[in-house]
Each structure stands twice: as C-alpha cells, then as structure tokens.
Specification:
Blueprint: H1 3-11, H2 15-24, H3 31-41, E1 46-49, H4 56-68, E2 78-81, H5 85-102, E3 106-109, H6 115-123, E4 128-131, H7 133-139, H8 143-149, E5 154-157, H9 160-164, H10 167-183, E6 187-192, H11 198-206, E7 212-215, E8 222-227, H12 233-242, H13 246-260, E9 265-268, H14 272-285, E10 289-292, H15 298-309, E11 315-318, E12 333-337, H16 343-350, E13 361-366, H17 370-385, H18 398-412, E14 414-416, H19 417-426, H20 435-447, E15 452-454, E16 459-461, H21 464-472, E17 482-487, E18 493-498, H22 499-504, E19 511-514, E20 517-525, E21 530-536, H23 555-572, H24 579-588, H25 593-605, E22 615-621, E23 624-628, H26 633-651, E24 656-660, E25 663-667, H27 674-683, H28 689-697, H29 701-713, H30 730-737, H31 741-754, H32 757-768, E26 773-777, H33 782-785, H34 802-814, E27 816-821, E28 828-832, E29 850-853, H35 858-865, H36 871-890, H37 892-899, H38 905-913, H39 919-936
Parallel strand pairs: 1-6, 1-7, 2-4, 2-5, 3-4, 5-6, 8-13, 9-11, 9-12, 10-11, 12-13, 17-21, 22-26
Antiparallel strand pairs: 14-16, 15-16, 17-18, 19-20, 20-21, 22-23, 23-25, 24-25, 27-28, 27-29
C-alpha cells in the first residue's frame, strides 16, 4: 500500500475523527483499516475478515462515529452486537473514549442491565448501543425502544463467523429484517475471524445483498511449530512428583518452559476436561498459569483475565472462550495442546498472538501421539495455504422460524401471514423456506396457543400465551439445567456442571476436577440444582464430562492425514529406517525430525496394507471389527451408525460402536464375521442412508433429548423448565410429535450438527465403484490400535496412579451384589463383594453355578424363576446364565468384574481373560470399561 493509500484511509474522515486519531496515537492504519475504511465511509455493507488484535473494532466503528458525529437524532444511531457479554464489557471500555471525545453517548445493554438503566436508555437513547443478539430481540418489542430503533443507520455484528454457525445467528438474521421494518435500510458491517467462505458469511450478514469483502491473509503471517516433547530424565522425576505418567510430565514441562520463555502466553486446549486436568498439574508445580473456561463463575473468569492482563500471570490455560476477542492485553505466543482439530481453530487461536507492527503470529502445537501429530501437521500446512473450513450455517431451522413468528406478532400486535413470511425469507438462512413449511409452523404455534391464527383473514395475532412464550424464549440456546457447584464448607460457588454430567456421574463420593482443584461430591440437590462438594488433596480422579465438547475433524484434514500415511508408508516399505522419511516430511511440514520420527514409528511397525486417503483397512479380532478410514468425524459417525443399525437389525442384538476421524470400531454380536460387515458395505444402497439413519436415531436418547429442546421452542411443552427432560416421558414425546415440524427440526438439527448423510452416501458409492479400496487383515495393527486413546484428551494418566486404583478397588469391594443359585433357584443372598468366597457355592445344593447380579437386579431373579417368559425376561435370563458361567470358571474375580458399573458378562469376560503382570492392571481395565460405559450409556439405546 502506498503512502497515498495509507493517508487516504484516515483522510476520508472529517476533522473531528482525524483529531481524535492523532490524540489517541493512531499514526498509521492497519491493513484492515487501510482496505475497509474507504468503502465503509461510502456507506457500503462490508465483511471484514482478519485476526483478533488487528484493529477490527476501530476499522468498523471509526466510519460509524464519523457518520454520527455532528448529526442530530432522538434515537439510537448505531448498534454494536456481540455474542458474549464479556465482549460487551470490552467494547464499552474501548468505545467510550471515542464517544466522549466526539460528543457521542455510548452505552451497553444486556440481560444484567438494571431496570433503572433500561428506563434511562428508553427515555434518552444513546447514540451507540452495545448489545447481544438476545437483547435486540427484547428491544424490538418495547414501545419506547421501537421508537429509538427507528433512527438506526448502522449495525456492526462482531464475531459474525461464530454466529453464522449457530441458531443464535439464524435468529439474528431475522431480527435484523424485523429491525429493517422499523428503520428502513441500514449499513451492515460484520467482523469475522478467518473463514473458508467469506462470501457466504457476507450474504448471511446482509440477507444476500451486495457486500464488500475485506479479507486479510493470515496464513502468510503465521509461524507455527508442531512438536512432541522429548522425554528427559527430569520428566521421570516430575512424573513421580505429579503422580502421573512420564509422557504427561513431559507435556507439562514443555508448556511450562514455553510460558517461561515468553511474557504472555495463551495455552489453548480442546475441552474443559483437559483444561482442568492440566490446570491441576500446573497448580501442583506452583506455576503462574491459571485456568479460564465457560463453566467457571463470572467472578473467577474476570479475576484471571485481569491478572493476566496486568502481568500477574504469565500463562492462561483456556478453551474456545478465548478465541473470541476478549481483551486480555498483549499476547506474544500461543500454545495449542493437542491438535486443534480444525484449520479455523488454529488460525483463530494462534492469530491472537503478535500483531505489533511487522510481527507474525507465533504458536506451538504440542502433540501427544501419532494421530495427533499427523493431524496437526496437516492443519498447519492447510492454514498457511488458506484451506479454511466453511461456516456451517443453519439453513431453514424451523424452531427459529417459530420463535420469530412470535416476535413479529409481538412487534405488530397482528401481522398478515404472508407479510411475516416475506420478512422471514428476506433473511439469508431462510431464503428457501417454502410456504407450506411456513404454514405448518404457524399452525403448530396456533395449536400450542402461542399465537392466534385467523385463517379467514390470513392474520397472525397475539393471544394470552404470546407474551409469556416470547420472553421465555428470547434465546435459541437450548434450555438445559445448569447445576451450581458450591464448596460445602465456605458456601462459595466453584463453578457449574451441566445436567447430563450430573445425571450420569454426580453421586455422593465421586471425585472430579474443577478450577484446577480436586472436589468430592457430598450431596446433589435436584430441587435447588446444586452440587455440594468438599475439597480433596488426591491428585487424580475423574474430570467433568461436559456435553458437546468434541471438535469434529473435517474430511479435508483427515484425507491429508491419510495422504501422509500413504507417502510415508511407501517410503518406509522394506527399509525399516524412519530417519530419511522424517527428514523428507520435515521439509514440507513445520516439525522437527524427532517429532515426525515419533509418529512414523507407528507406520514402521505396521506390517499390513497401509490405510490411506483412498484405501480402507478392515481388521478383525474376535468380535472386534475396525475400519481405518480417513474420512473425518461426521462421515465416520454416519457410516458407523449405518453399519451398527443394519448389523443390529440382522441379528437382533446391539452393536457397540466408537468412532474417531480415522476409524470406525465395532463390537459385533456372536456369529457376525468380517465378511458380513463387508457385505453390508457393498450391498447397502447409498441413497438409503438417510432413511437408515433416521430409523436408528429413533432408538437413541440423542433425538429424544433434542426433541424436548425443540418442542420447548415451539411452545409444545407448557410445563417445560430446565431439567424437565428427564421427568418427561421421552418415548411419549417422540410418539406425539412424529410427523410435525417439531420432529422435522429435531432431526434436521441432529443431522446438521453431528452427521454427514450426503457426504457419507458419496463415500459409500465410491467404495462400491472401486474408487476406494478395501483390504482386510485378521489381527489388530499399530495404526488400527492408534484410536484407542484418540479423542479422549488428558482425562487421567494412561496408567491410573495408585491412589485412584486403590479407590476403585475399595469402592467395588464395598459394593453389594446379589448371589443367586441357578441350579436349585431357591438360594439368593445380598452380600458385600469383599465377603464373597473365592469360589462361591450354594449352601443348599452345593452348586457352583452362582450368578453375581447388581443389587437392584431383583427383576433378573424373577425372570429366571418365571416359566412363561416375555422377550425382555428371556434376555435377562441369558445374562444371568452368562454371569453364572463366569463365576463358575473364575470365582471371585468374576464377581469383582461384574460388580463394576456398566460391565456386563461379555465385557467382564474380556477383562478377566487378559494376561496381566499384577492385580492393579485388572482394576485399571475395570476403570477403563466404567469410563467407556459412562461416555456411551446416554446415547445408545
């Protein structure tokens, strides 16, 4: 950019703004400012795509201030909409100076704004109002505020990429069209992190109208290194100190060293679980690194943000909450612990570092295993090359339409159905909504008494339930119960836990980590939605299992991992020497030879056909069938569910499934062979995948839980409140709502967020056409086994430490079981596991055919004794005999395994049959199976 061009950007402003720029020390515009200010001063709509820290806020707001300064109006001249209240605080602090200097009033309005302040804003509106999407919804219905909004000439939407991928954003797009009904056309300015389809995000912002795209190239200013730390002698000592394994110790040491080498470092992790687990290790070390994530209390988050900003903390261990532009001061380096899973995540996170004049954004990705390393290498290369994922816009979400129909009725009191339809379909995500769907939604709302439908005049009118519905549904965020976690001794709030975690895990005596500290659950109060805890000193334990934390790896990244394996595997064939291959890869990817060598060791040990981007390896051992397939999370999830459903339908038995971006692992019923699985792949019609998936979802809690959430947004559940999903009969809900827009939307949302039906159908067609090869091998391979730890993050040491094992042992030994003789069927006894004989036998008939059952399994005993059994009783009887066979063969060891949570006879047999060096390994395997059960029990029927 020439000096003339540089000068032209700021020269476009009037004298007042130019003087303020000089007073503020703005000498030279940043690249976004140079390129975006001229079209914005001209009044054009624009999307500005640039990293945090490049002056995006001033880029958008200086032209707005310039337009507003010196003009008279009663109402609000500009809205600045942000997705987070924390950003509201930041924006107010940043914008108030400009407002005071230019004689413009800047104010903030959100859910915590006092009634006094709200009334003041209605009577004397500010020139610029900083707010959230939800608060805009409420403002559009207020009589005085509607008058204030008539003067809006500019709307700035911050973090628009974040909103584009959510129903909050879909709701906002209609909200902006409702605002347009009041104020007429206004300038729209979007601020976005790097996205793969800026044109699409621009259309999302403007409703499909022309939009100037100003995109700053991030990849060329990115300096990312992928590194798996070398293990040193010091790590052995550190592992003992932290009571963890040496691999984790090396990760903790490496991160600590990087933080020490820089002034201010953000350490990003992918889940809150990992943040808590790592945070507890850093706390043990006494480092000045603190934890920051969304489940901590507001006060705790603000405290660590302020301490980091002032330099009291050198490092902040954080999740995606810090991807957004919360101001925590200057950041000179970013660490990403484990692969960031997506190119956009890497760019947003590492993009927070640097941005001083002529500085690049520097970051280090610390990897933990071969999958992790190959994935991070692929993502780093794609980031530099500009291969960013597109925004995943929610097109046509029907519960959003329902919500906004009620909003339009609140706006106007009554509105013609076709006028409402045209306003809704001006919003980009709803441009293809047809009239039939719209009418179905309006009838559903009328049936639920949310609005009154006057079919004679085609009018939608307010009714008694409209006001209550609308204000209870300002947000499109699902209404799930959140339990406050409180220290029983002090009464202070530690953080929060979601409903699913509390239901599936939180019972008195359980241990978890939050805010880097260990807590034992003392009491769960469901009425007050509180979990009372007391602190413990134990350095390990379970970590809270928040819902929806898994970041899906996209198809393009998984394919490049497959390509790396293909190229490297071919180079390694017959040589056994990874060094030259590592040197070759290090020329093309940003990692040292040690890191690449560590990942290549897996491929070097792999003697079967290599799974690649266009070749699937199917391996089988016993009842385990693993397809190593490089198609990414959502395609593998879709294909896995199809296989599970069809095989389960054929056998009448459930099929266990676990997927990651590179593998589909199945546990098939007895009698199913690998050829049955291959036949299912080859014979299933690709066009039938959608129907198969829908049928399988009807048996899954995921659809029923989603159905309850969507039904609330339609006003179908009058008695709905947070947490009521588990009190409402979900099967009854499914039966009642199937065939309605509520059911259609619940299914659409699940398919949109978790599955990829169309892409999976394409993959299946390519397999059947021979474009993707399939090889089989009758053993487990190093690459196939690589998924055993994939995606499970840093929950606990790979080999759980002695204190955790001792806790598991004591808990199981103290648990009670029902011992029941299957020979005479007369004797049963409830007994603590520790008091069970090494080889249990019936005192009445002397038989050793004793079933060991959970203490609540009285119905199993009843089933065994029943002569004329139904299907469920037959199933329970079979399980009882399987249990007795195990106890007869393995004695008390079988009783211990069967007493564990979620360990049935089949899994108990697997645990018992493994060869081990000591008894601790036996309990480690039990613990692993219990964790697996906790992860999957809520999803599969």
């Amino acid at each position: 950019m020439t000096d003339g061009g540089t000068a032209a950007a700021f020269a476009a402003f009037d004298d007042a703004v130019r003087t303020a720029l000089s007073d503020r020390g703005f000498q030279t515009p940043t690249e976004p400012q140079r390129r975006a200010i001229p079209p914005l001063v001209d009044g054009r709509d624009a999307l500005i795509v640039a990293p945090t820290g490049t002056g995006k806020t001033e880029t958008a707001m200086l032209p707005v201030f310039d337009a507003l300064e010196g003009s008279e109006r009663f109402g609000i001249g500009a809205l600045y909409i942000t997705p987070l209240r924390a950003l509201n605080r930041d924006m107010r602090d940043r914008l108030e100076w400009w407002g005071e200097t230019l004689g413009l009033d800047v104010d903030v309005r959100h859910g915590d704004t006092t009634d006094y302040q709200r009334q003041k804003q209605a009577d004397d509106p500010p020139d610029v109002l900083v707010t959230t999407p939800e608060t805009l919804q409420a403002m559009l219905t207020g009589k005085k505020l509607r008058r204030a909004l008539e003067d809006v000439e500019h709307v700035v939407v911050d973090e628009v990429h974040e909103l584009a991928a959510s129903k909050r954003g879909a709701q906002l797009t209609i909200g902006l069209e409702r605002l347009r009904e009041l104020s007429g056309s206004f300038q729209r300015i979007g601020l976005s992190a790097t996205v793969g389809d800026p044109g699409e995000v621009g259309r999302f912002l403007t409703g499909g109208r022309d939009c100037e795209i100003v995109e700053v190239d991030v990849g060329s200013d990115l300096d990312v290194t992928v590194r798996e730390p070398e293990i040193t002698d010091a790590d052995e000592r550190l592992a003992n100190e932290l009571m963890t394994n040496v691999d984790v110790a090396s990760h903790v040491r490496a991160i600590d060293e990087i933080v020490s080498d820089h002034e201010s470092t953000l350490v990003f992790v992918n889940t809150r679980q990992t943040a808590e687990a790592l945070g507890s290790r850093f706390k043990e070390l006494g480092t000045d690194i603190e934890v920051h994530h969304g489940s901590l209390s507001k006060e705790a988050r603000i405290e660590v943000e302020d301490r980091f900003k002032t330099g009291d903390l050198s490092g902040l261990l954080c999740t995606s909450s810090m991807e957004l532009g919360i101001d925590v001061g200057s950041i000179d380096h970013v660490v990403q612990y484990q692969s960031p899973r997506q190119v956009s995540r890497l760019l947003q996170r590492v993009g927070r570092a640097g941005h001083r004049r002529d500085e690049v954004s520097s970051g280090t990705v610390i990897t933990t295993r071969p999958d992790d390393t190959f994935e991070a290498l692929a993502i780093a290369r794609q980031a530099v090359a500009g291969g960013v994922e597109p925004a995943n816009i929610h097109h046509g979400s029907l519960d959003t339409v329902a919500n906004q129909i009620a909003g339009l009725v609140m706006d106007f009191g009554e509105v013609g159905a076709m006028r409402a339809y045209h306003i809704v379909t001006r919003a980009y995500p709803f441009r293809n909504l047809d009239e039939v769907e719209f009418k179905q939604v309006t009838r559903e709302l009328a049936d639920n008494r949310v609005v009154w439908l006057n079919e004679d005049d085609d009018l939608l009118e307010k009714c008694r339930g409209t006001w209550q519905y609308f204000y209870h549904n300002l947000s499109m965020i699902p209404d799930e119960a959140t339990y406050d976690v409180k220290d029983m001794a002090s009464g202070r709030q530690v953080g929060t836990l979601d409903e699913k975690f509390v239901v599936n895990f939180a019972s008195p005596g359980e241990i978890f980590i939050q805010r880097g500290e260990m807590w034992r659950i003392t009491e769960v109060d469901e009425d007050d939605e509180e979990v009372l805890v007391s602190p413990v000193e134990d350095p390990a334990g379970e970590v809270p299992s928040w819902v929806g934390q898994e970041i899906p790896v996209p198809y393009e990244v998984a394919q490049e991992v497959g390509d790396i394996r293909k190229v490297a595997g071919a180079q390694l064939t017959g040589t056994g020497d990874t060094a030259p291959v590592a040197r070759d890869l290090a020329k093309r990817y940003p990692a040292d030879e040690h890191t690449i060598n560590e990942a290549l060791d897996q491929l070097d040990r792999h003697e079967a056909a290599m799974p690649t981007d266009d070749a699937i390896l199917v391996e089988f051992h016993g009842r385990e069938v693993v397809l190593t397939a490089h198609f990414g999370h959502t395609i593998n999830e879709t294909l896995g569910r199809v296989l599970s459903a069809l095989i389960g339908q054929r056998t009448g038995s459930s099929v266990g499934m676990e997927v990651d971006p590179y593998r589909i692992e199945l546990e098939v019923p007895q009698g199913i062979t690998v050829n049955d699985v291959l036949d299912t792949i080859r014979e299933t019609e690709p066009g039938h995948i959608a129907g198969i998936i829908e049928l399988s979802l009807k048996n899954a809690d995921a659809l029923k839980f989603k159905l309850a959430q969507v039904a609330a947004k339609f006003g179908s559940l009058k008695g709905w409140r947070k947490g009521s999903s588990r009190r409402f009969g979900r099967d009854r809900l499914l039966d009642a709502l199937e065939g309605t827009p509520v059911y259609d939307e619940a299914l659409r949302e699940l398919l949109h967020e978790e599955l990829a039906v169309e892409a999976a159908s394409d993959v299946l067609a390519r397999i059947q056409a021979g474009e993707i090869e399939i090889e089989t091998v009758g053993e487990r391979t190093p690459v196939g086994l690589g998924g055993r730890s994939s995606g499970k993050e840093l929950l606990a040491p790979e080999n759980a430490d002695a204190s955790v094992i001792q806790t598991v042992r004591e808990r199981i030994q103290n648990d009670r079981v029902i011992l029941f003789c299957l020979h005479c069927r007369d004797w049963e006894r409830k007994q603590a596991v520790e008091r069970v004989a090494d080889q249990p036998e019936c005192p009445q008939c002397g038989s050793t055919r004793i079933a060991a059952l959970n203490p609540w399994a009285d119905e199993v005993v009843t089933a065994v004794k029943t002569e004329d059994k139904d299907e469920e009783q037959e199933k329970q009887t079979r399980r009882a005999y399987q249990s007795a066979n195990l106890v007869q063969s393995h004695g008390k060891r079988a009783v211990v395994a069967l007493a564990a949570r979620g360990v049935g006879p089949h899994n108990a047999a697997r645990i018992i049959s493994k060869l081990r060096e000591d008894e601790d390994e036996f309990y480690r395997d039990i613990l692993a199976q219990e964790r697996q059960y906790a992860r999957t029990q809520s999803f599969w029927d």
